[in-house]
Amino acid sequence: MYTFFKKILFSIFPIKSIYRYELFFRFFYYLLFIGRGFHCVVCKANLRQFIDNKKELFCPKCGSIGRTRRLWDIIEKEFLKENNKILDISPSRHIYRAFKKKNENYIASDLSGNFLSDEKYDITNIPIIDNSFDLIICYHVLEHIEKDIKAMHELIRVLNPNGFCIIQTPFKTGVIYENESIKTEKEREKHFGQSDHVRIYSVNGLISRLESVGFNVEKRDFFENKINSKGFCEAETILICSKPSTSDS
Q: Structure pTM?
């Protein structure tokens, strides 16, 4: 039913209008899910269940998915500090809205125009001075970037020496899989799992590339029961990156 209504809305309204009025549309659907037993950490809704479309668990009120809720849970508990300067690259609109209520120094950037954003920075050439941000969020972005090492250099450059960069991509076992000869959307979907992806990282492969540009990387693994009260993903890995301290160099 969720997918059915979503297809109807996207067939009738322009995508920007849907984003603008999304919470209005969702409110009436959310009324069917009010209850106890489940809780969305992004919009704080108490639910009788999340929407299960077999691939993701959606919050009926804000539309967040499992990885988005985990990200926001970590941010709220550890990184949401007053006056922090924050850069979010191609943010989920759920995180975008949550940040806009919490932090006036939050900047969202998206070059494609497909996401809610404030700026259109090229992640491989960010027009910001060094050491500008206390927190950078780069979630499901690097797998889209052909010159990913250049992007990583930019991320560490604009990160405050005491700041953190939170990174996640889709992962596979083994080594990074990429092939520059694969160009078409159809081929990329077949090889990399999505038409606009240019590689699939392994966890260790991505860590190695991040360390090669100077990041210290903390790997965090999370495991949950399939049914859990916050609708988190069953298993996921998140990388928390920072600049080496003076004593490390």
A: 0.90
- Give the amino acid at 181: S
pLDDT digits (tens, 9 = 90+) for 205-220: 999 999 999 999 999 9
Looking at the structure, do residues 127 and 222 belong to the same domain, yes or no?
yes
Q: Which runs of consecutive H residues, i.e. helices, occur in the chain? A: 2-12, 15-30, 66-74, 93-102, 148-158, 185-192, 203-212
pLDDT for 233: 96
pLDDT of residue 13: 60
Contact between 164 and 210 under an 8 Å Cβ cutoff? The reply is no
CATH of the domain at 88: 3.40.50.150
Distance from the Cα of residue 187 to its chain's centroid: 24
What are 58's strand-pairing partners?
A: 51
Q: Looking at 47, 64, 81, which one is the last position of a domain?
A: 64
Q: What was the pLDDT predicted at 18?
A: 66
Asked which of 64, 81, 106 is the last residue of a domain, the reply is 64
Q: What share of the chain is helix, strand, coil (3-state, %, to 5)?
A: 35, 25, 40
